[in-house]
Write a structure and sequence with these properties.
The protein is 20% helix and 25% strand. It is of the alpha+beta class. The chain starts with 5 loop residues before the first strand and ends in a 23-residue tail after the last helix. Mean pLDDT is 84; it is low at 169-183.
Length: 183
Amino acid sequence: MFLVPIELRPTIAGQGVFTLVPIAMLQPVCFFFTNAELMPRREYDAKQESGDIKVIRSGCRYVLDHFVCSTLDTEEPENYINHDEADPSMLYHCGICFARRDIPADTELTFNYAYVMSENDSQTFTDWRTGRQVIGMPGHETLEKSTAELLALFREKACRQGQDTMPAPMVADGAARKIKVTS
């Protein structure tokens, strides 16, 4: 569900989603929970492997090893958000897309698919800009990276606004904490 007015337009990837209005940095742009089925990664991977078109077209990581996919028989605009690894306009974090920067009207809305795909996803593809294969990350890595990026965006926005009261980084030396996740 988009929280801003959008329009589908032709792109190099077929169709893409474009904003019709300017979007401020960190503004929530869309979320993936309306008319959705929640499933564990093993079920998601099995449905991908079996060719389940709903899962292939609309499935995305929610958080850790849980995925959502549409329960509707119609295409939703969210299915047309294109991948951009180098400079995506949005950050996908736990089912919500946030603006990574101020986004002018008539800009294509994109995010890095590695955040939404399973590391075992059968529907991999090659990034048109980098030539690299796009592969999903393990759930804990997705959560760790998207959380770190979201915090960095909040810090950046606070600095732009002249605030110096942003919380300190979660790990002072910059090293990532390893968290063991069991299913």
